[in-house]
Fold:
Amino acid sequence: MTEIQQQPAVPPVSPDQAEERLVYSGYHSIISGVERQWEYGGFPLPDGSFWRYREPNAVVVVEGDRLRVSAVPLTRFHNEVQILDNAKNMFFSTRRFTMPEEGEILFEWEMRGRGINTKPHDLYDGFVSAHLLDFATGMALDFFVSNDTIATVYALLPFPGVPAPPDPEPERAVRPKYFCDFNELPVETAPWQWHRYGISYCKARDEVRFFLDGREVGHYSEVPCKIEGCVLALGLMTEKSIEDGRSVSLHGQGLIGEWGPFTVTLRRG
Structure:
């Protein structure tokens, strides 16, 4: 197993900074149902039903503070709504994390993934994911990992049931209303290789940073929405566009993902 690099993702705290830190895992509650820290994700549909991101034959294993989910093969799909087709099995945290008005909040975790019969060098054929999701605005900050590719994701998405952002006059708009930037990183990885991931957000500066094994690999400024809070999400996913009213995301491939606990660091000042 490849050794995880443990460098800090941000510089050490200076004496004039106040720091709060918590560790969030609670994966046992997925199985026990007691004091749930995670639940299956999904969205309500216009007809009153609910689309749940749950692979019926997925195997969920909790070992201490690590979660492993296997779905071989993947079976879930949706022929009409892209966001519902993409996620096959996904857990949302039951806790919503509030973003500080000043300072910075940093989420760090370890993750690895393996694709079974996924297409080489095609991230979107099947990947393991971790997300910070704000259902009030539609902002999503993510990492995706496949057998051979890691990508950061910076997005503003039309989640079902989430109010649309203000729409300026087309002649005055300088950026798209909705967007998704998949930044495939020029780094090497391998199936089932551990990496340490980090995403930080500064509301006061409207700034997002992405870290991989302690090194900054992505930076976005002028975030278009103030993120007030987010939930965490852990997924087994594909990302193939629906064609002619039919999902084309499945061809018998499977995914295995494993996640460690999340360390959440709040730095004020």
